[in-house]
Amino acid sequence: MKPLAPLCILGLLFSSTALAALDCKAYRPDLVRAKNSFATNCVSCHGVNGDGNGPAGQYLVPKPRNFAVDDFRVGGKKPTIAQIVGVITNGLPGTAMVPFSGQIKDEKERCDLAHYVLTFRKK
Ligand code: HEC
C-alpha cells in the first residue's frame, strides 16, 4: 500500500485544484473592464448607476433593486463578493436575472462584475 500513498495525495491535490472555483474576494478586480462589461450586459436592466432604472429594468416585475441603497435579496445589507458572483453566475430563478455563466464564460470577468456591483453601494 505504501508506494501508492504519494500518488493518492497527488491525485487529491490535482482534483481539488481543478475543481476549485476562483476566489473572487482575493482576486484583484479590473474595474475598467467591469464597467465596460456592465455597460454591455447589465445596464439595460440595472441602469448605469445600478439603480434598477435601465430602459428594460423599469418595467420588470420584480424590478432590479437599487444596488446603492436597497438591501440585497441575497446577502441583505452586506452582500459578499461570493454571494454576488453566485447570482451573476447562476441567476435568480423566477426573475429576469438569468444565469450569466454561458454569456460571460470568463470567471474573472464575473468576479470583476461582482466587485463593480459593490462599488455602487452607499451604505
Ligand atoms: C434582463 C434584465 C437583467 C439583466 C440583463 C441583468 N439583471 Fe441582474 N437582476 C435583474 C433582476 C430582475 C434581478 C432581481 C431583482 C430582485 O428580485 O431584487 C436582478 C438581480 C441581480 C443581483 C442580485 C441582487 C440582490 O438583490 O441580491 C445582482 C448582483 C445582479 N442582478 C447583477 C447583474 C449583473 C452584474 C448583470 C450583468 C452581467 C445583470 N445583473 C444583468 C435583472 C437583470
* Largest β sheet strand count, sense and barrel closure: none
Overall pLDDT score: 89
- Give the N-to-C terminal Cα separation: 58 Å
Low-pLDDT runs of 5+ residues are: none
Q: What is the number of strand segments? A: 0
Based on the coordinates given, report the CATH architecture.
Orthogonal Bundle
Classification by helices and strands: mainly alpha
Strand content is under 5%
How many DSSP H or I helices?
5
Tell me the radius of gyration.
18 Å
CATH topology: Cytochrome Bc1 Complex, Chain D, domain 2
When the domains are counted, the total is: 1
Task: Assign the CATH class.
Answer: Mainly Alpha
Give a written overview of the molecule.
The chain has 123 residues and is an all-alpha fold. It has one domain (22-119): Orthogonal Bundle (Cytochrome Bc1 Complex, Chain D, domain 2), CATH 1.10.760.10. It has five helices and no strands. It has helices at residues 4-19, 31-41, 43-46, 81-90, 107-119. The mean pLDDT is 89. The structure holds heme C. Residues 41-42, 44-46, 56, 60, 62, 64-65, 72-74, 84, 87-88, 92, 95-97, 100, 113, 117 line the site of heme C (HEC). The site of heme C has 23 residues, from α3, α4 and α5.
List keywords for this structure.
123 residues, mainly alpha, Cytochrome Bc1 Complex, Chain D, domain 2, 5 helices, binds heme C
